[in-house]
Amino acid sequence: MPVLSLIANPADPDFDTKLAQAVVAEIGGELNWLNNGIACDIIEPKAENALALAREIIGTRAVDVNLVPTEGRRKQLLVADMDSTMIQQECIDELAAALNLKDKVAEITERAMRGELDFEQALDTRVALLKGLDRAAMDEVRRGSITLMPGGRTLIQTMKAYGAYTSLVSGGFTFFADYFGKRIGFDEAIANVLEFDGDNLTGTVSKPIVDKTTKRTRLETLANEKGLSLSQTMAVGDGANDLDMIAIAGMGVALHAKPVVAAAAGYRIDHSDLTALLYLQGYDDEDLVR
Q: CA-based, 20 to 30 A from 209: which of 27, 40, 218, 228?
């Protein structure tokens, strides 16, 4: 039994009962609000092309529309990307800003996330440009330049409260992933390790690097360790190095993603915050742990 999920951004919901009812009138089904004016399910839509029809009706309104199977809807394992997913920035770009190199590094980051460059080569090139940056400057970046993606802590705390295991697997750096993983509440954090000479970066990163294969393998390994099928897992990310884990997860979500990722993912969130991943799983507002 499929459910059509409609979700708006809680911070600025461009959604109302009239719009939801217009979708129901076109595709059929039963309307059930998960959070009034923010997220609803349309249960058992009748139209064969319900997803396309709903998106056509929604038009330019900032509402995410996905078709979700109800069987096994709540997932027991989440593997998440960090940069531009659980936090709003790309950490390597912010480190580069401390050396007045942000534009140069950000261009390489953007191309890598679009899948235009080999990830490991792009990482090595960018990290080399950070040579000499000291820990004090890095601490300042971590404290002053990085902000959490809205809804992230609610996502993690709610899934954990209902028995899920949560893993942060990042192509970024442990310097950030360990810190923000704990703040958000992840059970574990895995990322690349920057190398230091005393208190200064050497411009190198420990090998092997955390890349798309690492992300996919960690999802598979955790599922196996916990006796879960891949259908019981969720993965979320925004860049090309997230595609492999998104492809095999039971619910693979592209969040505010690059076009190549959004086009390939089974589920996409373009407008809402991270609480959308809870509404996709059928949690209602009263279930959320804030």
A: 228
Q: Is 83 a catalytic residue?
A: yes
- The single-letter DSSP state of residue 84 is T
Q: Which two tokens stand for residue 54?
A: 């709903």
Prior bond to 45 cis, omega within 30?
no
Domains, the chain, ordered by start: 1-71 (3.30.70)
63, β-bridge pairs: 8
Q: Choose, from 16, 41, 64, 83, the residue flagged as catalytic.
A: 83
Q: What is the CA radius of gyration of the chain?
A: 20
Q: pTM above 0.70?
A: yes
pLDDT tens digits, residue range 54-79?
Answer: 999 999 999 999 999 999 999 999 99
Which of 81, 93, 242, 244 is an active site residue?
81
Residues in the chain: 290
CA dihedral 100, 106, 109, 114 (to 10 degrees): -170
Q: How far is CA 172 from CA 11, 48, 114, 191, in A?
A: 28, 42, 16, 6
The rounded distance, in Å, linking the Cα atoms of 228 and 244 is: 18
CA–CA gap between residue 273 and residue 157 (Å, rounded): 15
Cα 220–chain centre separation = 18
DSSP 261-285: HHHH-SEEESSS-TTHHHHHTT--G
Query: 201-214: per-residue pLDDT in tens?
Result: 999 999 999 999 99
Q: Is the dihedral of CA 68, 25, 288, 71 positive or negative?
A: negative
> In the chain, which ranges are E strands?
2-8, 30-35, 39-43, 63-69, 77-80, 165-173, 188-192, 194-197, 200-205, 233-237, 251-255, 267-269
Q: What angle do CA 36, 37, 43 make, to 5 degrees?
A: 70
